[in-house]
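User: Predict the structure for this protein chain, please.
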Amino acid sequence: MPGTVPGSVPGTVPGPTPGVTLSARLRDGRCGIGTRRGTRHGASPVEWDVIRRAAALAAIAALAAPGVAHADGPQIGLSYSLDGLTSPRGGIRYVTVPLGKRTVVEAIRTDGGRVSWMRTVPGFWATWQLTTNGDTGGLSRNLKLLVLGTPAARYPARWTRLLLYELQRHRFDIIRLHGDFTFDALSPDARTLYLIQHVGGGAGSAYRVRAYDTQQRRLLPGAIAERWAGSTTMQGVPVQRVTGPAGAWEFTLYQAPDGSSAFVHALDTVHRFAMCIDIPKSMTSDIARLTIGLDGDRALQVVAAGRIVGRIGLDDLHLEKATPEPHRTAGSTPQQPQSDRPWAPIAAGFAAILAATGCALVLRRRRRHAVS
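Assistant: Here is the predicted structure, written as structure tokens:
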């Protein structure tokens, strides 16, 4: 693929009809699902049946997922949940489902759960969990690029592998970067991928924001930070993510590892610029209950214990203290209680069990065939 650098793996995932995955081409031969006939590199009719069932079960679980609560809260990094990533307009949910040594990438309609299409890629890949609040990422606003990650052999990772999946052409590249990186954001046109480069160990460790050019397939030099800042290294735990109008800005609320302070990291995804906005203790002492939210296209509200205590102007990024008032989001609707959908945890668990059973049957069949 043009622009591919050494260490990346280009591939295509063609299919003769929508919703049917046939193969993924790599430089060293065929890989992925193969043909319906089941060649040496392909899948048998039994495996195809398992794939179809996995797709259906993922669609069911994706519908059930919003009602499932996790007692220990979400984990930052890779997300193995079937919640997936929802398109900006909410019509499509993109889900990854592990299937042996492959991963099924699916596009599922949110209005009924119909699988629009599914493709497979070699290896184990997952979407991203960005904050402790459960915010996810990896999908460009123009729906052209999906960024997936894979677990590292050790932490902190010496090398990081990312899969860049082109949603419109169903092609992908696997890139390899030296260091420990995780996804942060994408520019609206998907030309710039922003990554968190971890330069320390443990939760809330020091990090830098880096930019990766998806057209040239190269990591750009230097860190994305305030042009007048003396240091490009930051530290904190990401708590909440809010996307600005048109996806041009990404605002992330960070807390210090000891919970003593907080700041908002404002990332201009169009112009590759960022700055940190400290939230002073004089504004609120309730750091643990801080949240942020958009006030139309004018400001970012800083909320403490349900009351607005400050506003950050979107034109100048200046933080002003506000008279405490109840926080209301225009057009927001209360989250549906889990009790209204008691079947959600059961459906998600049942789907996971059946998918795991199907994968085990395929692997056992392959071993038996190899012995014979």
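The chain has a mean pLDDT of 76.
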